[in-house]
Amino acid sequence: MEPTEEIKQMVKEKYSEIALQNGETNTSYCCGSSCCSTEVYSIMTDDYKNIDGYNSEADLGLGCGLPTQFAKIKKGDVVIDLGSGAGNDCFIARAETGETGKVIGVDMTEAMINRSRTNAEKLKYHNVEFRLGEIEELPVTSGAADVIISNCVLNLVPAKQKAFREIYRVLKAGGHFSISDIVLTGALPTRILQATEMYAGCVSGAMQKEEYLGIIRETGFDNLTLQKEKMITIPDDILLNYLSKEEIDKFNQSGAGIFSITVYAEKPDAVCCDKTTCCN
Question: What CATH number does residue 159 fall under?
Fold first, then answer.
């Protein structure tokens, strides 16, 4: 099996386990990774509970931001959520887009799709649907979405350039995305980078911040904006699973950082193919 496929399979297995658990259990995880301290309620996720559309059964505590808060969703918009999990961000997006809009959640884990569909049926939401698929090959037609959101998922995707090309393809001309994700500044210790639990936990699969933003620019997006940024501190009792006390001290003093960012960018209104012709 190719390394990329091994990573995907590992992520599918981990998130299939999480899909069968409840949100309270998962908040003892680091973005779903069992590497995390049970003494920490959550080291990444933000509090959704006072946001319109929030549904506790759909909240597995796996996010690292609130992309819907910044996504500029309007009534009637078509919104796509990448890595939709149990459906929480989709249901919040539905509260913004209303009955006249549509929300599509995409997830590569069948157990998550089953859970999100069950949640939607309970809520009697007929304009929210969930599709099984991978972000690198979205099961959505080109130019379908006004807005794309994602919450702490793209760091799990090995082919990030391909993922952003798919986001560009699926957005309408003039559409935009708001994505919360994990990025790095500086180098992580090798044993953290090599730990599968830390990959599933949204840490070791994260890119350097400037490289991540560079991919977005190179894909062709305009008006790139950092809407929110916060530093993530991994408790020492987690790091002790991988590093000695001396190595932890060295890492903490290295200046390296793990950050949750929410980034916004727009697909241009029209792409000019030559000096006289523009096409969407």
Answer: 3.40.50.150
Structure tokens, 76: 């009637």
How high is the mean pLDDT of the chain?
86
Q: Tell me the one-letter amino acid at 269.
A: D
Contacts of 244 (CB under 8 A, 6+ apart): none
**Structure letter (DSSP) for residue 75:** T
The conformation of residue 58, written as its DSSP 8-state character, comes to G
pTM score, two decimals? Answer: 0.87
User: Which residue in the block uniquely carries the two structure tokens 């009534």?
Assistant: 75
Give residue 28's pLDDT band: very low, low, confident or very high (50, 70, 90).
very low
CA dihedral 197→82→258→60, nearest 10 degrees, is -60
Neighbour tally for 21: CB within 10 Å: 14
The secondary structure of residue 67, as a DSSP letter, is H
Structural domains of the chain, count: 1
Residue 151 domain-assigned (yes or no): yes
Strand, helix or coil for residue 13: helix
Give CA–CA dist 228/226, Å, rounded: 6
In this structure, what is the dihedral angle of CA atoms 143, 149, 262, 172, given to the nearest 10 degrees?
Answer: 10
Neighbours of 226 (CB within 10 A): 12
Let me know: does 73 contact 93? Beta carbons within 8 Å: yes
* One-letter amino acid of 46: D
Q: Which residue do the tokens 């569909």 mark?
A: 117
Crossing angle, helix 160-170 and helix 209-219, to 10 degrees?
Answer: 40
pLDDT tens sequence across 184-213: 999 888 888 777 667 666 777 889 999 999
